[in-house]
Amino acid sequence: MTAKERLVDAISDMQEEEAIKLVKEMLEAGTDPQVILDASREAMAIVGNRYERKEYFLPELIIAGDLLKEIGILVKPRLKAKGTGKSLGKVLLGTVAGDIHDIGKDVVGFMLDVNNFEVRDVGVDVPSDVFVKNIREFQPDIVGMSGFLTQAFDQMKHTVEAIEKAGLRGKVKIMIGGAIMDASVAQYVGADAYGADAAAAVKLATSWI
Amino acid sequence: MPEKSPQQLYDERMKRVLDAAALRVPDRVPVFGPYQKYPYAFAGVTLKQAMNDYECARTVCHKFVDHFQPDLDFGPIFTYPAPAMDILGWKAFAWPGHGLGDDIMYQYVDGEYMKAEEYDEFIQDPSDFMLRTWAPRQFSALEGFSKMVPWRRFMWSGWMSLDFFASPEMRRTLDLAVRAGEEMKRWWDSQSQYKDETKAKGYPLAFAGWDWPPFDILGDTLRGTHQILADMRRRPGKLHDALEVATRIFVEYGSGAAGEPLPLVWVWVHKSTREFMSDAQFKEFYWPYFRRGLLALVEKGVIPVVYWEADFESRLPHIVDVPKGKIIYHLSNTNAEKARDVLGGTVCLMGNVPNIMLLSGTPHDVRAYCRKLIDHLGKGGGFIMDSALMLDEAKPENLKAMIDFTKDYGAYR
For an engineered disulfide with B410, which of A75, B198, B281, B406 has Cβ 3.0 to 4.6 Å away? Predict the structure, then answer.
């Protein structure tokens, strides 16, 4: 087994200490940092897969996300600037105004990223004009709105209306997510679809590209 | 027939709910729920106004209960006292006028308020940890408590450490704590005034206490969502030890309702949903402690109302393992018929008219949905009508349709 293969296993099997130890060893041995990033990406794809198959849940996605950040900190100083590689499409993500919950949105962002989407996350409590401004700047194919509270119903509706008013509705597909969302909410707010979980969000996004 | 007196109505409403909870057949399906921000929207009052003006909150709740006449009433309990929160400088909370717009529901600011290396301190002496470490992190006014020495060391010569009371930080904290306490007293006085007024009209209050499952006691305000979920893999041993402590706190919390005529303790379930953890993790970390706590409360005569959150279909085979006719399970977004198939005959079920229907549907839609619920879940008792989630927004005619239709069609004739 090569060091790279061992790293893929350690990350995808949630062996955090082992993974960090391997990364440090590889860097000391002069391994090209790009190899480590490739291994991380490969491992994240496995994690994403296990999540879709319901072997992994939120805890594992959280740990994988933390690991990716930690590896990034170790590797980035040694990395020569390089392109971000292929992108299936661009997704703008945010939790709508009046709602400060981020876990669901973060997990969707993670899963989209793992599946080769370019994601711009505009955070929580995002007013409709910020969505509009970011659609103009970032030109996403898809807008993902997250919300955890029932008051998000009307705020999502309001945001879709603002996108419509700005003349941008025809340029983006809109999906919504959050524990309390369903198809009737998607219809009410004027979105194209809702995703029951992060795997569903990836499926929707892929089907739209 | 002469009109019923408020006392008769009061007794009737209480009996109706107690019968449903115990899986006996009441006179009709009870209908009530935690109407959170909705009464204020109905009265055209912002949440900010209601949280700052206790009299206004009481007036709104009277208006709400007079118009809709649910079986049980929550009153103004969900309008937290903003003046006291301001004095305390609550850092872990956002509310109207304090990080949120005037009419936005208040929210907890999720964060790591107990660090991983502090598990042992919490396990060894939770009160000391909450007092000297947690409280200063949550409330800027209580930062002086970090100057204290642990009170467990106060035997014999402990009094010699009392010089901490003279520190400027502690003087400030004591001053602010007294002011916050006075404000809290005004708020509680308003709550009990409302309770008396509403009782005089024939409405019992829907709660005798609140509680949170052991996993959420640790996850909500101590470790935070991100950390507690990762802890199941990173430090399962510590988590189990802390869950033992949290289970004792859970039982202590809920026990306050023991001996009340309507001993409903609402248990707010947060991190048990299918997304948050696998079934194996639920079986290992969530359910065993929660179940043990619930059984202890039942033993004390308390009726827990478990407010399961989101869709908990995958958990049904586990959570059916509780004593018969002693607990109410709120359905939230779970498929009502699937829940009935597993839980029916064991626990009283409560719910679950979709909130989006109450907001955007018609009275006709609502009545059709309620009819289906009563037909499928209401047979032979053990069912309470409510919205799927705590109510913040709805068309008044839709909520009225839910309540009035249940009173009529839900009668056991």
Answer: B406
